[in-house]
């Protein structure tokens, strides 16, 4: 199928989340590998049961701010902490079993100093920072196929994913947010939200209508081919203010359930999940979108 040009749609936001569930970093460009966005969700925090923790239960995670200093070193700040944490990633340590949703993955514990810092910052006991050696050590495996829609499991390529919830890369348009905010404002007397609530990797502007991204199957973002294989089923995390860590009384999920949940209230939709089809490609602010194939 010949490419259709969507000349008005451009990339206006790029984000990575170095530590899963913590604050994101805005970038001018991102590079994709076959597991997702390089530097995105390659680390996470786990509890005493070695299970990942998220803003669903601990919204204060939104105030923990990590920054990659280089591929080997991360710096983290948090409100109330007099000192930041500068941590050199431990990549060759013993592998331990940790849990993301129903997946058991092998990660590398990052030591007691990091554990004490995060436990203090969050006011929780025995929080551990772990690193995913995805693509670096063959012992790490996390097949993505279980997250494919049932109808596509035999058709989509086998792929693994890092510590993201269910997709190597996520995409949404600002036009979808504008529509959601109009509905939120009407329902709440004026309350609206910003796009960072949805913690997406690639943000677009210029769609001809809200939720136009739902219609796309195969696209290129700049020179990066991406297969949009599923809508993004939303949880209550977008109700958390990403600056304060305080949840809204009425959040985006409450509104989305009213008009964007064809599969039931637990499957409210906003944004798209994508597969990386060619590793090594870079996406930049200002890159244009081409739609090569529409979803049936």
Order of strands, main sheet, comes to 1-13-12-16-15-14-18
Catalogue the unreliable spans: none
N→C terminal distance: 14 Å
Q: Strand count, sense and closure of the main sheet?
A: 7 strands, mixed, barrel
Taken as a percent bin, the fraction of beta residues is: 25-35%
| Share of helical residues | 10-25%
Evaluate the radius of gyration. Answer: 19 Å
Give me the number of helical elements.
3
Order of helices and strands: EEEEEEEEEEHEEHEEEHEEE
Structural class: mainly beta
- Total number of beta strands: 18
Q: What is the overall pLDDT average?
A: 94
Instruction: State the assembly state of the protein chains.
Output: single chain
**Can you tell me the overall shape?**
globular
Indicate the topology.
Blueprint: E1 4-16, E2 25-26, E3 29-33, E4 36-37, E5 43-46, E6 65-70, E7 73-77, E8 85-88, E9 95-100, E10 103-109, H1 112-122, E11 128-131, E12 169-173, H2 174-188, E13 202-205, E14 216-221, E15 224-233, H3 252-259, E16 269-276, E17 282-284, E18 288-294
Parallel strand pairs: 12-13
Antiparallel strand pairs: 1-2, 1-13, 1-18, 3-4, 3-17, 5-11, 6-7, 7-8, 9-10, 10-11, 12-16, 14-15, 14-18, 15-16
Structure description:
GO terms for molecular function: catalytic activity; molybdenum ion binding; pyridoxal phosphate binding. By secondary structure, this protein is mostly beta strands. The chain is built from 3 helices and 18 strands. The protein has a 7-stranded mixed barrel. A 4-stranded antiparallel beta sheet has the order 5-11-10-9. A 3-stranded antiparallel beta sheet has the order 4-3-17, with no helix packed on it. The mean pLDDT is 94.
């Amino acid at each position: 199928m010949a490419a259709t040009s969507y000349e008005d749609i451009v990339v206006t936001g790029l984000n990575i989340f170095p530590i899963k569930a913590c604050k994101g970093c805005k970038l001018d460009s991102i590079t994709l590998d076959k597991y997702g966005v390089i530097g995105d969700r390659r680390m996470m925090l786990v509890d005493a049961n070695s299970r990942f923790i998220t803003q669903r239960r601990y919204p204060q995670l939104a105030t923990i701010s990590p920054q990659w200093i280089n591929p080997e070193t991360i710096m983290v700040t948090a409100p109330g902490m007099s000192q930041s944490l500068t941590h050199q990633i431990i990549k060759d340590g013993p592998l331990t079993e940790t849990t993301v949703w129903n997946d058991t993955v092998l990660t590398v514990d990052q030591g007691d100093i990091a554990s004490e810092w995060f436990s203090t910052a969050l006011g929780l006991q025995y929080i551990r920072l772990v690193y995913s050696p995805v693509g670096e050590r063959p012992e790490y495996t996390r097949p993505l196929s279980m997250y494919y829609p049932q109808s596509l499991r035999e058709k989509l390529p086998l792929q693994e994913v890092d510590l993201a919830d269910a997709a190597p890369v996520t995409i949404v348009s600002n036009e979808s947010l504008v529509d959601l905010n109009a509905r939120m404002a009407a329902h709440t007397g004026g309350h609206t939200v910003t796009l960072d609530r949805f913690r997406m990797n690639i943000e677009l502007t210029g769609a001809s209508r809200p939720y136009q991204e739902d219609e796309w199957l195969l696209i290129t973002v700049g020179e990066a081919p991406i297969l949009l294989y599923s809508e993004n089923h939303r949880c209550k995390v977008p109700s958390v203010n990403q600056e304060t860590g305080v949840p809204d009384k009425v959040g985006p999920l409450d509104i989305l359930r009213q008009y964007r949940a064809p599969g039931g209230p637990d499957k409210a939709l906003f944004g798209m999940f994508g597969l990386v089809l060619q590793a090594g490609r870079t996406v930049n602010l200002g890159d244009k979108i081409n739609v090569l194939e529409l979803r049936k």
